[in-house]
Amino acid sequence: MEQPDPTMTRTPHDDASDGVEPTAPVPADLADSADDEARERALRAGLQEYDLADEDLALIDGEGLDGAEREIETTLPVLAVVGRPNVGKSTLVNRIIGRREAVVEDNPGVTRDRVSYPAEWSGRRFTLVDTGGWEVDVAGIHKRVAQQAEVAIDLADAVLFVVDATVGSTDTDEQVVRLLRRSGKPVVLVANKVDGPAVEADAAALWSLGLGQPHPISALHGRGTGDLLDAAMDALPRVSAHAVPLPDGPRRVALVGRPNVGKSSLLNKVVGSERVVVDDVAGTTRDPVDELVALGGKPWVFVDTAGIRRRVHQTSGADFYASLRTQAAIEKAEVAVVLVDASESMTEQDIRIVQQVIDAGRALVIAYNKWDLMDEDRRPYLEREIDQQLVQVQWAPRVNVSARTGWHTDRLVPALERSLASWDTRISTGRLNAFLGELVSAHPHPLRGGKQPRILFATQASTRPPRFVIFASGFLEPQYRRFIERRLRETFGFEGTPISISVRVREKRKR
């Protein structure tokens, strides 16, 4: 018996026979769905003639789907780490959280913003906040760093005050003590850099600060940190009086771009306060900074990141570690906003950062910042740059903003929502194969070695980002894959998300 051609389409009227009219018309969408399912069944049956691995069968049956779930964070007590510059605060933070997350360098003043990390000790979970060095009578960027440390104290439930035991208490340390006393917060005094018994006498001299027992530790080597954390847990309340509970599943947005394109200014504008340090000096931000923001009636977690200067292996010192943290922040985010300075010519670094987001598989929005600084003569050049240099990323939503004035920042949320909706989109297997059947009928793959590869079956393996797997009888040329991707975008949207198409070549079973 001759099998029906799975590429043929039917209409509801074809089901009427012998002049008997159907009792009710079949809705077009239901008829299309039935056609798609019939096509899928026919193509599945045809696959039985081919050699398929167990992994292939699991993928075809839908068992290879990987729905990524967002973690739900809860309100945790907050422990802030404060002190003057270069006493080892970030080294202690890395020791407590058990990984090298905070940027550390021998030079003072590496940390500038207050940065939060989830931590745990003896079964108790809490939020650890690293801060920049607090100094007295400073100006410029150092003054703003000190202000961020003061905000961290205000928003903490308890404080670890770190002092360099090898130097002893200084005038700046005594100023910090007065600040801590005014705050009324529980304080645990940390005598750092006590690398052996010979330095413990220097630690004992810190009783003079009037904050109780100094806890001698070596943050670098881990000496004494267990006893310190036991004391910190005694000082830290079980229920936070300051932490803001995060609603279920806020979407994570990473702000990325070259140094000095306005990432921190944009975060401050959407937050509505001076959340992060902003300065004309390029590379002000070193550590990724998370902040919960309510925009468009929804919660979002915005992550300010360090500016990406050049390729990671070409950087050194704090810039090297900041680049690694930025890459990690992109991978932990769901959507990235790549900021480009509209008032300057687009650089190779801008293109590389966009590609970095695509390679990480994250949804993408491109924001052209400093629009208020762009003159009319610059606009046609910018349009030409976009057409030439971002020709492969025409699918990314584009927003023109001014982080300094707040102009058009309200357009950011609709662009983010479109990109995330595409990032989450799933196409049914029947509809996908119907689409490919029509596409191949109109535009068949060119002959390759005298043979024409045939698409046997296709399925969407995952979302976030959408990933498609095509089973074919032969290799599909890269140009044809790009053609399929372009038509997928034209038909189903996928605005703002990278999509991946992989091909598995399978041969017929030998009889």
TL;DR of this structure?
The chain has 511 residues and is of the alpha/beta class.
Task: Describe the structure using short key phrases.
511 residues; 6-stranded mixed sheet; disordered N terminus; nucleotide-binding; KH_dom-like_a/b; repeat; KH_dom-like
Summarize the helices and strands and which ones pair or pack.
Elements: H1 28-47, H2 54-60, E1 78-82, H3 89-97, E2 115-121, E3 124-130, H4 141-154, E4 158-164, H5 171-183, E5 187-192, H6 200-204, E6 215-216, H7 225-235, E7 251-257, H8 263-271, E8 289-295, E9 298-304, H9 317-332, E10 335-341, H10 348-359, E11 363-369, H11 378-389, E12 398-400, H12 412-423, H13 429-442, E13 455-462, E14 467-472, H14 478-492, E15 500-505
Parallel strand pairs: 1-3, 1-4, 4-5, 5-6, 7-9, 7-10, 10-11, 11-12, 14-15
Antiparallel strand pairs: 2-3, 8-9, 13-14
Helix pairs in contact: 1-13
What do you see in this structure?
The chain is α/β, with parallel strands linked by helices. Helix content is 33%, strand content 18%. It has helices spanning 28-47, 54-60, 89-97, 141-154, 171-183, 200-204, 225-235, 263-271, 317-332, 348-359, 378-389, 412-423, 429-442, 478-492, and strands spanning 78-82, 115-121, 124-130, 158-164, 187-192, 215-216, 251-257, 289-295, 298-304, 335-341, 363-369, 398-400, 455-462, 467-472, 500-505. Strand 5 (187-192), helix 6 (200-204) and strand 6 form a beta-alpha-beta unit. The longest helix has 20 residues, at 28-47. It is elongated. It starts with 27 loop residues before the first helix and ends in a 6-residue tail after the last strand. The model is unreliable at 1-28, 64-74, 105-112, 138-142, 278-286 and 312-317 (pLDDT under 50).
